Structure formats: structure tokens, C-alpha cells
Amino acid sequence: MADPIIRFIGVQKAFGPKVIYEDCTLDVYPGETLTIIGGSGSGKSVLLKMLTGLLSTDAGSIQAFGQEVTKLDERGMGPIRRRFGFLFQSGALFDSLTVAQNIKYPLREHSWGTEKEMDDRVAEVLDMVGLPGTEALKPAALSGGMRKRVGLARAIAMKPEVILYDEPTTGLDPINVRRINGLILSLQKRLGVTSIVVTHDMDSCFTVTDRIAMLYNKRIAFTGTAEETEKSEIRYVREFIAGGRGTLDEDID
Q1: Residue 116 CB coordination number (10 Å)
Q2: Which of 24, 97, 134, 173 can pair with 101 through a Cys bridge, CB separation 3.0 to 4.6 Å?
């Protein structure tokens, strides 16, 4: 197996008296789709924010692309962040900007190419997410599913090596859930990227994942393939999956 592209080693994090992580250890391998599951407030999104330097750690090590992230200042994080694409839970589009302007925002921030090259890239990524010809629309004219897809187009605009998905299907109807799941799979294959998906949607989790990591008791308490997770005899894994699928009953012990 290839060396991990991302490593969390003994990470600790607290917000005042609320401890999120006591000893978080996890490896992510190149080209895989890793899904992170866990209860509300367990710190799934915090993990992504620490990885990208949006939140600091209290102790432990986070390594990305062979570099120690926790020791980098804001300037040092710049080249690291350019290698990540981040799809935020809300889509995080600027309402005053058009679709094209939203996608160009990170390209301009990092002086990515000429205006013509940026226009071509916008058209290319919109086609990838199934929204060709929407460049001139404002976010207010888009459905929830379309906003997520524009957010995804922006996330891949700079050709990242790793895509981070924070609850990508939250608030979407079943048709758009399937569409987003399909995009996660197709982009992973088409672009050869590594994907980390934070979700509470068990159906989506098992649809897109190569491997599952479960947060429990302030640490990564379980990792395994989809099949290994389905067959797990660990009580908290079985309860979480059954509860997420609406099948939890008294037979789980």
C-alpha cells in the first residue's frame, strides 16, 4: 500500500471545557474515498478545518503531502491549501457574484492564468458537474442542489489533489442526493483525486466510500471497508449504522 497522503497522529482539541479529541489518529491513502461518520458534535467538520489550518490543534501531529501542517503559519499554509478543494456544507457561494465569478474567486486569489484561461476553466468544471451554460446566473436563481454543484465546481477549479466534502448531501432531496453521490464517484475516477467525505447519511456513505472511519469517544474508534463496517460486531458501530438507516431496534446488543 502507498504511503499515507494525510496523517493525523495523537491529535487533541478542545473548545474551553468541551473536549473534542483526546487522541485522534487516522491515515488517508492516495486515491481513496474515505468517509468519516460519527454523532452530531463529535468533531467531524473540526477534523477537516484542522487539516486545512482553519483551526489549530492543542497537541499532536497533522501531516499533509509530507509536511507538518500544525507548524505552518498562515503564509506557509497557502501552498498546502491550494492542493485541497473544499465543498462546504452550505455551498458557501457569494450571493452578489455570478456563478462564473464565484468559481473564479479562488483562481483570481492565486493568480491562476489569464482571463481567457479562467473562462475556459469555469466552463470546463461546470460541464463536469452537469451545469453547462450557467455562468451568468446568480446563486439566488439556483436550487439547493445546483448551489452544491456550483460549490463543487469551485472546489475543483484549481485542480486539487484532495477534495474535502463537508456534509455534501445535507438538505437535498433524494434525486439531488443521488446526483451528488454520483459526482463524488465520477470525479474521484476522472480526476484521480483523494476524497474525504464527512457525512451522517449512511446511504450516501456506503455508496461513495472505499473506507469508513468512525468518530466515537473523542477519537477515531473504528476504520474499515464498507463490507467490514457492515459486518462489524462492535456495538456502537452497529447502532450508528442502524440508526442512520432507520432500522435501529432492540435486537442490537
Answers
A1: 8
A2: 97
- Look at residue 61 and tell me if it is in a domain: no
The answer as to whether 66 is a domain residue is: no
Domain holding 169, by residue range, is 30-55+75-244
Tell me, what CATH number does 108's domain have?
A: 3.40.50.300
Does residue 141 contact residue 63 with C-beta atoms inside 8 Å? no
**Using an 8 Å Cβ cutoff, are 24 and 47 in contact?**
yes
How many domains would you assign to the chain? 1
Say what the alpha-carbon torsion angle 228, 191, 106, 108 is, to the nearest 10 degrees. Answer: 170
pLDDT digits (tens, 9 = 90+) for 7-51: 999 999 999 999 999 999 999 999 999 999 998 878 889 999 999
In a domain, 80, yes or no: yes
Residues of the chain with pLDDT under 70: 1, 90-91, 244-253
Q: Find the distance separating the first CA and the last CA of the chain, reported in whole Å.
A: 35
